[in-house]
Amino acid sequence: MLTDEDLVQEIQSGSQAAMEVLVKRHYSSIYSYINRKIGDRHTAYDLTQEVFVKMMQSLGAYRNNGKFAHWLMKIAVNHCLDYYRSKHYKQNHTQTELDANVSDDKSNVWDLFHIQYQREKAKQAVLLLPEHQRDVIILNFYHDLKVKEIADMTDTNESTVKSRIKAGISKLKQILLAGDDGCEKRKQI
């Protein structure tokens, strides 16, 4: 199996097939990050497509001085930042519900509803975090990236990433423990 770097070299030589392999290899990871970050699967789909367009446009500048996946994730992180700064986002900011991907036939309906409810609460809590904390929480817990990797992707130092993770976890705990009676508290956090 070819490495990402091998595929990049083939793409730079004009191989369409290598581009398709590289996109298929990383598509789900990039889409998952953007979907968790944005909270809208349709917008996440569009932004994911744009990230891969940016990747193709930037491949000439890619220098093999790290993992390709991290370089690509950094493009996704920056693209999400650009999206949040965009006029389109500011005018059309909405949130959609998280789709449940539960298919356990042995569970009863109430268990499925409870799982969906817990997932939705967690998603909404993450979306309530300030953007800088949301980024590090998603990258650390959903994508299993290390503090150093997150620091590289977000152009911050490691101690800042650690403090953002700690503060984000603390705020998530406050939001989730506030429950339904704490709706006003959650808006203030």
TrEMBL record:
CDD domains on file: Sigma70_r4
Gene3D superfamilies per record: 1.10.1740.10, Winged helix-like DNA-binding domain superfamily/Winged helix DNA-binding domain
InterPro entries associated with the record: RNA_pol_sigma-70-like, RNA_pol_sigma-70_dom, RNA_pol_sigma70_r2, RNA_pol_sigma70_r4_t2, RNA_pol_sigma_r2, RNA_pol_sigma_r3/r4-like, WH-like_DNA-bd_sf
One Pfam short name: Sigma70_r4_2
Domain RNA polymerase sigma factor 70 region 4 type: 122-172
UniProt key word Transmembrane helix: no
SUPFAM superfamilies in alphabetical order: Sigma2 domain of RNA polymerase sigma factors, Sigma3 and sigma4 domains of RNA polymerase sigma factors
Record keywords: DNA-binding, Sigma factor, Transcription, Transcription regulation
Coiled coil: none
UniProt domain RNA polymerase sigma-70 region: residue ranges: 22-87
Membership in a protein family: Belongs to the sigma-70 factor family. ECF subfamily.
Protein name, entry field: Sigma-70 family RNA polymerase sigma factor
